[in-house]
Amino acid sequence: MSDAAMLIGLSAQELAAAYRDRKLSPVEVTQAVIAQVERWEPHLQATWLFRPEAALEQARASEARWQRGDALGPLDGVPATIKENIATRGDPMPAGTAAVDLKPAPTDAPPAARLKEAGVVIVSKTTMPDYGMLSSGLSSFHTLARNPWDLRLTPGGSSAGAGAAAAAGYGPLHLGTDIGGSLRLPASWCGVFTLKPSLGRIPIDPPYMGRAAGPMTRTVGDAALLMQALSKPDARDSMSLPPQDIEWAGFDVSPDHLRGLRIGLLLDAGCGLAVEPGIQAAVEEAARLLEKAGAVIEPMQPFMSQAMLDGMDHFWRTRSLVDMKGLRADQRAKVLPYIRAWAESAAEFSGEQVFRSFSQFHTTRVTTVAACARYDYVISPVSPNMPAAAEAPSPTNDPLRPLEHIGFTVPFNMSEQPAASVNCGYSASGLPIGLQIAGQRFDDLGVLRVARAFELIWEPQRPWPVPPGR
């Protein structure tokens, strides 16, 4: 393994230790990450506002802090990316669409502010689809993002660039958002780890029902390290949780931690696409491993319904239609045609239809909490399907059936429960498969602990995608 490849493979935890012991410098690590980005980007198109010189300037400042002995913490000098819909001061925020007028953000959103305060080296922003409403990297503004495991396929979305960047080694830390599966779907399809935290655990601006920011990393430990910074309070989020002193370092448990845990096994979402056999087999094998380690696995009946999924879909269509009516005609014409067709399908909805659709969010919340109440944790597939073609806006490619793949993920946005995706296997063609681990509301640390225990019992040494031409 070359020195550069070795640096790319180091976790944030390992980098912090190496910086502290002066065995590595943030500058040389950032240089290696920049070279990795330049090697992959002609193929992936995961970045936006990739600024090597700005990143190196941040790295030199971090190096000086470590040399003086006044580093800002364990994240100081660690390379990271930020999804482009998380505002960074002075940068436009297109939200993946060519329809918006680009204006510099006046301030950092809370997650970006926490990273900067921690001394993180921000290498780039990452791409997303129009308005974040696709599980795809297809965008009317950004170049089409692709999956590093197979460039013909989507990385997932809406945190498309973040998932691809994490898998391809654009630094150990990546920040995305999730309102129905936008962290977990790309994490599953790109073979990385993510935690969609309890709603409000990570303050975000603007807050919205079900919307969460979260870490995307190659290891559970790096996500826990990032949560230390991201979960700090910020008054701008009126939906944020009260500050809590969580011992995030306590994520690092042994497989013995699983002994006696009551874990529900959900293999049927109750709506949307049927689970592909290879995905079901991988999740069932994960359940056997957890059971062998001492967990009590109990099969669950589906609790979601197609009416719940369709109701949320119809309300989101209406919201997007209202947003598009606020655009000029020339702006509306630039919206991705699939998104435009999806939103315009709500034009004839009555007030009663919209009310009944909105009511499904609460129905989903109540149903999900009740279904999970008897379990410590619930495991399931992240997605019922493997990634679609990169050019496809959704697995069905049908704007009237756009959300058929989020039946396992979206209920935990609405119930506000933490849910992670951890790699649990590979398809016959070698593509990664994600296991979703959901916990009770507020038990973010517990989800990380179960994910860490599974990480230890499953496959410690996993392959990673190799840049084309190597």
From TrEMBL:
SUPFAM superfamilies: Amidase signature (AS) enzymes (SSF75304). It comes from the Bacteria. InterPro entries: Amidase (IPR000120), Amidase_dom (IPR023631), AS_sf (IPR036928). Pfam families: Amidase. Residues 28-447 form the Amidase domain. Its EC number is 3.5.1.13. GO terms for molecular function: aryl-acylamidase activity. Keywords: Hydrolase. Coiled coil: none annotated. The keyword Hydrolase applies. NCBIfam families: PRK07042.1 (NF005450). This is Acylamidase. It comes from Variovorax paradoxus. The gene is aam_4.
